[in-house]
Amino acid sequence: MSNLEREAVPTQCGGRGFVVGEPVRELLSPRRVRLGSSTEVRRLLPNLGRRMVGAWAFVDHYGKDDIADEPGMQVPPHPHMGLQTVSWLHEGEVLHRDSTGGLQTIRPMELGLMTSGRAISHSEESPKKHARYLHGAQLWVALPEQDRHSEPRFEHHAALPLVTAPGLTATILLGQLDGVTSPGTTFTPIVGADLALGEGADVRLPLDPDFEYAVLSMSGDASVDGVPVESGSMLYLGCGRTELPLRAGSDAGLMLLGGEPFEEELIMWWNFVGRSHEEIETARQDWMTGTRFGEVKGYDGDRLPAPDLPPVALKPRGRVR
Questions:
Q1: 80 is in an annotated binding site
Q2: Which residues form the Pirin N-terminal domain (predicted)?
Q3: Residue 78's domain is classified under what CATH number?
Q4: Cβ atoms of residues 14 and 261 within 8 Å
Q5: What domain range includes position 231?
Q6: How confident is the model at residue 321 (pLDDT cuts 50, 70, 90)?
Q7: H-helix or E-strand containing 285?
Q8: What residues are paired with 40 via a beta bridge?
């Protein structure tokens, strides 16, 4: 999914200097952003108080939206570099097209994973004939220096491994949880898991104390380490945890995001993750002139123009709050 804001704000993120090295309970409120004419998202990362969680650098939560009489998601072709996009649905379908020739309808509990590498472009739209409701999350993972200039590719994994306990079914999107590993390609130590809790569930999830974690609430009534987390909000948990208590007052859906703190300092501007102003400037020019990012074939409409760069040079920094 694209950042469609017409005045893109640069985000300096990465580095270990401001990583919380102990367990915390920091509740992050979303910022509401319009995507096109019919989709509104709740943006949790980057946040005023928290820029990254491990290599996770961008989190949008959308829905549950009734799109029976609406076009639903309509995101025109747009570019990415230096990151992976993770498409995750609880309800509805999203048709993905990209400049490598990828064409895939992504359905609930299926992983759509696009590795931009040096350059890719894609579009996302609800199919013309679509389900009544649309509900999901779109996330970005920053690529480390040694992998960010790789060739672009798209993966689709319809079947993902599970971790189960009484009252809990955890679907492993990326990385490893409790010894179970996702088939999705990763480039840094990371974990992403969808947690389905049954009403009355009271469980403890094993964690890696070297990772920092956050939990996004997708739906239902749940508490995370004793903190009630409303749908569309996210609780940052810091590092140093070996387990995480979860309770559900109703059927609830959560997403666990975690990973080793990302050491490199980054610039995230519009749909690009880079390391310098010059790199971002070149990527914008390449997109506007039609070079490097390829063509999304089959999309009925114009591609998305890039916003103007800010008048001051972009500089990479750490996790400055």
A1: yes
A2: 41-141
A3: 2.60.120.10
A4: no
A5: 11-259
A6: very low
A7: helix 277-289
A8: 34
Closest CA to 141 of 61, 210, 52: 52
The two tokens of residue 148 are 């960010």
The answer to the question of whether 122 is labelled as a binding residue is yes
> For tokens 């102003």, what's the residue?
277
pLDDT at 1: 52
Please report, for residues 114, 230, 260, 314, the alpha-carbon distance to residue 308 in angstroms, rounded to integers and kept in the order given.
26, 35, 33, 13
Q: Which amino acid is at 298?
A: G
Task: Report the predicted TM-score, pTM, of the whole model to 2 decimal places.
Answer: 0.92
- Does any domain span residue 52? yes
Answer yes or no: is 319 within a domain. Answer: no
Query: Is 265 labelled a binding residue?
Result: no
Average pLDDT for the chain: 92
In this structure, is residue 169 part of a structural domain?
Answer: yes
| CA–CA gap between residue 192 and residue 174 (Å, rounded) | 5
300 backbone dihedrals φ, ψ, rounded to 5°: -95, 90
Q: How confident is the model at residue 8 (pLDDT cuts 50, 70, 90)?
A: low
Number of domains in the chain: 1
Q: With contact defined as beta carbons under 8 Å apart, do 144 and 188 qualify?
A: yes
Q: Is 156 annotated as a binding residue?
A: no
At 133, which amino acid appears?
Y
